[in-house]
Amino acid sequence: MRTMKIGISCHHTYGGSGAIATELGKALAVKGHKVYFFSKEAPFRLGAFSRNIFYHEVEVMHYPLFDAPFYSLALASKIAEVAFYEKLDVVHAHYAIPHAFSAMLARQLLEDKCAESKCFKLVTTLHGTDITVVGADRGMQDVVRLAINKSDGVTAVSGYLKEETIKMFIPKKEITVIPNFVDTSVFFRSPKSEIRDQLGLRDEKIVIHISNFRPVKCIGDIIRIFYAISQNSNATLLLVGDGPERSEAEVLVRQFGIVDRVRFLGKLVDIVPLLSIADIMLMPSNAESFGLAALEAMACGVPVVATMAGGFPEFIVHGEHGYLLAPGDIEGMTEKALLLLSDYDHWLECSEACVQQAKRYETALLVEQYEAYYERLLADE
User: Fold this and answer.
1) Strand partners, 39
2) Which CATH number does the domain housing residue 156 bear?
3) DSSP letter (8 states) at residue 312
4) Does 47 score more than 90 pLDDT?
């Protein structure tokens, strides 16, 4: 397989799409490809320097005549600049809006300059919010549809998201499902006693949730479920992340009188130490295009109590890797959580099954799929 020059446009902020885009780029760089990241700030999982990784900050001009900054335009300009000078083979946009749209505009900016040589192929990966939230806005539907149809290749992180995209947009492009992945050489259970000491924990059970605290994550339901758990089990809840729902969650914690049993830990990059001491993960989302946090928890042997929403059923088997219940079923999720916390043999069986399931989503296997996908598009020139 030839060495490629690959641009990756993604969100730098906390969340699954940025994590996957960054881990994909890092894995491609290890395999010898040159990878160029485009984002407003360095992606949160980019980490240490690599000789095959180049980060290009998108500087946004602010002008008092306009209410919004020119991020999409600045991104398009930066992609066009780097693509021209570095002769990129592929630009991989994670999210249709703004990233695929900006890459599409970048190709138009390069039309004259690329007259004597090929322009890059545009690959768009749909992660969920770009379809189910932005795409659901009537004023944005045509923009999202255009970004999809003008891409050379389109992938989705789950079968659920593919079907939702087809139903909402009837795209002209074939959508290929390449699921999210996890590096099991990094995500594995390795409990360290000092983590408990640092958090002031003793021998209680640990319930964990990791997200960007958006409304779709149902943070209030997590507090209500944990409150019910705490009435029947000696447990502590670790909440990792931050976002618009945090304030309401803090109010609920005070109202329920469980302040001393809940830890708001904020945004953390290294979550493996916390997952390694966790007993279960709660993910009561109303919608979830895939659920990367759940897969990473499973790799660390943490059974998941989640909803039957979106992509969860594609990699979580009810009763084998945890439990799947209807969104809003607080009583049912409480019951299943208490079952896992009280029956060690059952927990251990689920924990071991989770580790084995995560290995089916190993980074190396899925990165090979992306490499082959790029190759097929480049071969069509």
Assistant:
1) 57
2) 3.40.50.2000
3) G
4) no
State the DSSP H helix or E strand holding residue 124, giving kind and residue range, or none if neither: strand 121-126
Q: Within 13 Å, how many C-alpha atoms sit on residue 302's CB side?
A: 33
pLDDT in tens, 298-317: 999 999 999 999 999 999 99
Integer Cα distance of 120 and 114 in angstroms? 9
- If asked whether residues 74 and 197 sit together in one domain, one would say no
206: tokens are 């640990």
184: its two tokens: 């099991």
Report whether 205 contacts 312 (CB < 8 A).
Answer: no
Q: Is there a domain that residue 263 lies in?
A: yes
Q: What confidence score (pLDDT) does residue 63 get?
A: 66
CA pair distance 19, 272, nearest whole angstrom: 14
Do 126 and 19 share a structural domain? yes
Beta carbons within 10 angstroms of residue 27's beta carbon: 20
Whether 187 maps to a domain, the answer reads no
The string of pLDDT tens digits covering residues 172-222 is: 999 999 999 999 999 999 988 899 999 999 999 999 999 999 999 999 999
For residues 357, 362, 368 and 374, what is the CA-based torsion angle, rounded to 10 degrees? 90
Q: Judge whether 283 and 307 are in contact, CB under 8 Å.
A: yes
Residue 194 to residues 199, 202, 238, 326, Cα–Cα distance (Å): 9, 11, 16, 37
Query: How many distinct structural domains can be found in the chain?
Result: 2
Burial class (CB in 10 A: 0-12, 13-18, 19+), 1: exposed
Q: What angle do CA 354, 292, 175 make, to 5 degrees?
A: 115
* Residue 261: alpha-carbon gap to chain centroid: 28
Distance CA 99, CA 7 (A): 11
Collapsing DSSP to helix, strand or coil, 264 comes out as strand
Q: Rounded distance, CA 313 to CA 338, Å? A: 21
For 40, the domain range is 5-181+362-379
AA letter at 265: L
Whether 188 maps to a domain, the answer reads: no
CA distance 167 to 135: 12
- Shared domain for 153 and 243, answered yes or no, is no
Rounded to whole angstroms, the Cα distance separating 318 from 273 reads 26
How close are the terminal C-alpha atoms of the chain, in Å?
A: 17
Mean pLDDT of the chain: 92
Q: Cα–Cα distance between 27 and 369 in angstroms, integer?
A: 12
